[in-house]
Amino acid sequence: MARLSTAFACCLTYLLSAPLAFAQPGRLGGGGSLNLSLTRIVMSLLLCLMLAALAAFALKRNGGRIDLKRLGGLIATLPAQRRIEVVETRRASQYADICLVRCDGREYLVLSSQQHQLVLREAECPVAAAPNAEEEG
C-alpha cells in the first residue's frame, strides 16, 4: 500500500510540473540552438558519401577482399627511417620512468623525471638475428 501511495504521489507531482516544462519554447534539455549552417551539413554529407564510394570502389576492385599484407606494406613505407627508437619504457616510481632508447647503433638507458634526465648506461646495440634468415634456411 505504501508503494502505491508513493507511486501516486510521484505521478501527481509530475503531472503538476509538466505544464511548466512544456511551456518552455523549443529547448530540448534546456540547451541552446546548434547554430549549424546548411553549407556545413551538406559538405559533411558529401565527404561521407565520397568516403563510402571510395571504400565500395576499393572492395569491388579487389573482389570483396581486403589485402592486409599490401596495406601493411603501404603503411610501413610511409614514414622515413627514424634514427631514434624508444625500445621499452618502465615506471620506476610515481614520478620517474626508465627508458631504453636506441640511436645510431647505440643503446641508452635513461632515467627520466620531471626535474631531470640521467643517462644510466650507454652501450653498443646488440646484433639481433634477422627474423627472415631463420624462415628461409
Keywords:
four-stranded antiparallel β-sheet, alpha+beta, 137 residues, disordered C terminus, 4 strands, single chain, 4 helices, flat
Summarize the structure.
This protein has 137 residues and is an alpha+beta fold. The protein contains 4 helices and 4 strands, in the order H-H-H-E-E-E-E-H. The termini are far apart.
| Largest sheet composition | 4 strands, antiparallel
Strand-residue proportion: 15-25%
Spans where pLDDT lies below 50 across 5 or more residues: 133-137
- Using only CA atoms, what is the Rg? 31 Å
Roughly how many Å apart are the termini? 83 Å
Structure description:
The protein is of the alpha+beta class and 137 residues long. 45% of the residues lie in helices and 23% in strands. The chain has 4 helices and 4 strands; from the N terminus they run H-H-H-E-E-E-E-H. It has helices spanning 2-22, 38-61, 68-77, 131-136, and strands at 84-91, 96-103, 106-113, 117-124. The chain has a 4-stranded antiparallel sheet with strand order 1-2-3-4, with no helix packed on it. A hairpin with a 3-residue loop joins strand 3 and strand 4. The termini are far apart.
